[in-house]
């Protein structure tokens, strides 16, 4: 007999409800994200920036953070030796769509995409520094807060 029911899997990050402080609205029905072959993670965390082009939605690309010293560029790793990522460059033709409402598995990329609400800037999965201005212009109804003060 064919099993058509998805097995239940729980992603526990502890930060979803802390990162998304207030959901006001999102893209009705959500979207299935396109996950590029080179996307480095198995879990996409709440607050991850979502981009779109021609009806295709995907997580904002990541690149491994590097540091340069004395002309030598070195990849940054955490205390466990895992790569540290940051947002990469917005691909040509893509626009910012919103942020991921809840963490999902990259292997099952059914996503709720928030387009209006509040995001805790202290707990977003990756620093927004390099893209924040452009993101806020594209998604003006998403407000970044810090200790309940809007940025």
Describe this structure in words.
By secondary structure, this protein is mainly beta. It has one domain. Helix content is 7%, strand content 39%. It contains two helices and 15 strands. The protein has helices at residues 16-19, 132-138; strands at residues 20-26, 31-32, 43-44, 49-53, 56-59, 62-64, 66-69, 72-75, 85-87, 95-100, 104-105, 110-111, 113-120, 142-146, 149-150. Strands 1, 4, 5, 10, 13, 14 and 15 form a seven-stranded mixed sheet that branches. A two-stranded antiparallel sheet has the order 2-12. Strand 14 (142-146) and strand 15 form a beta hairpin. The longest helix is centred in the last third of the chain and has 7 residues, at 132-138. The model has no long low-confidence stretch (mean pLDDT 89).
As for the number of domains, it is 1
| Helical stretch tally | 2
Approximate helicity band: under 10%
> What's the shape?
globular
The structural class is mainly beta
**Which regions contain 5 or more consecutive residues with pLDDT less than 50?**
none
Beta-strand content bin: 35-45%
* Largest sheet geometry: 7 strands, mixed
| Rounded Rg | 16 Å
Order of helices and strands: HEEEEEEEEEEEEEHEE
| Tally of DSSP β-strands | 15
Overall mean confidence score, pLDDT: 89
Summed up:
By secondary structure, the protein is mainly beta.
